[in-house]
Amino acid sequence: MNTTIRTHTYKNGIRLIHRLNQSAVAHFGLIVHTGTREELTEEHGLAHFMEHMFFKGTRKRSAYQIISRLENVGGEVNAYTTKEETALYASFLKEDYKRSMELIQDIFLHSTFPEKEIKMEAEVILNEIQSYDDSPSELIFDRAEELLYPNHAMGRNILGSEQSLTRFDTAMLSRFLKDNYATEEIVLSFIGSIPFDLIRKAGEKYFGEIPHKSRSRERIRPEAVSGIRVTEKRDTFQKHVMLLGEAYSLTDKRRLQLYLLNNILGGPGMNSRLNLALRERRGYSYSAESHYAPYTDTGALMIYFSCDPEKFQKSMQVTRDEISKLRTRLIPEKRLINARKQLMGQLSISHENNEHMMLTTGKSLLIFNQVDTLENIQKKLEEITAVQLRESANEILHSKNLNLLIFE
Q: Can you tell me the distance from the alpha carbon of 187 to that of 29, in angstroms, rounded to the nearest whole number?
């Protein structure tokens, strides 16, 4: 582990990770291993709704006082919710670290979830849902996971629905918080030039007295469905197409090789095979990409493109051809070396973003109880062979394992 990183576990099970740097700006986050997959059917969208309601008032602060607490000194506070975690985090001048940690503690522990605010926020999120429905290129990702994991919280969208939003009240929010936010699954993550001992003591002051608590709800692994084809009528000018299949989980040792394979197929680089084949060489599609989303006990690989209806069959064939090449041909050694360098470059650049690094470092400790260095990741990448990539392509990208979803 990098010598600039230190960790500590408080008596209640909450863990702290600290990365020292020399910046005048610091970042602090509270990350909890609770997301939308913890929701019961009637709680659809509640984890994300909870994220919004953390900012709507505590026992001693109004919503305005919460947002002004850091903004008055040039900082900012934010949050996000995924299917497996929730984070509250802040960026601020380093001398305001206590102010920031106390604010995160206050909204996490002392939010009151007033009924009046619940009703207003439900309207805000309803508008967010409607806006999302107007964007088929985003909506198709949620709909595809719904097909992959039917009748499981992992398959439901994060925002909830118009029906579920009307059911939320103070009692439901308080119960969800009580049932799902365990101290053993909370990480405090800090990056800045404040010494470790000062952050450890501040963490003890603001979070150390929280009573120890274990998870009360057990996660159930979703059963993935494969090999289905669904076409949905949408009011769109283009066709939107998604190929989706189950992939390696976060704990699978082959996870890094699938990251590399995905990067080659349709990653963020303009030189990905899908982008070159569909956009650059033929002009069939403006957007062609693939994504790998690993979770603690499953994962999903998603291949997406949009095109004019008359280009659909050709685009589909080109996409299948690119998949077939990965399954049948070994990637030449020179191209494999370049692919490793490209992924390492992307990871290294992302490490330059301290806020992003604070969140990813905290998540790594949360899930793996350790943090990989870039040097260790590079060593693992260099050990990945073309044969291993072809094996992963055959396992994950076989046609019988992929669902096809079309918006037209």
A: 8
Residues 405 and 408: their CA atoms lie apart, in Å, by 10
How many other CB atoms are found less than 10 A from the CB of residue 286?
13
* 55 phi/psi in degrees, rounded to 5: -100, 10
Backbone angles phi, psi at 260, to 5 degrees: -65, -45
Edge-first strand order for the sheet with 5-9 is 5-9, 15-20, 186-192, 25-32, 86-93, 76-81
Check residue 111 and report its DSSP letter: B
Rounded to 5°, angle at Cα 149 from 144 and 152: 130
Closest alpha carbon to 189 in 180, 204, 199, 201: 199
Which amino acid does the sequence have at 313? Answer: Q
> Which structure tokens are listed for 298?
């499953």
Paired tokens of 144: 């595809």
In whole angstroms, give the CA distance from residue 148 to residue 161: 19
Which residue from 316, 302, 238, 229 is spatially nearest to 265, judged by alpha carbons?
Answer: 302
Decide: 377 and 256 in contact? Cβ < 8 Å.
yes
* Each residue's pLDDT tens digit, 155-177: 999 999 999 999 999 999 999 99
Report DSSP state, residue 221. P
Nearest-angstrom CA–CA distance, 147 and 149:
6
**pTM for this entry:** 0.94
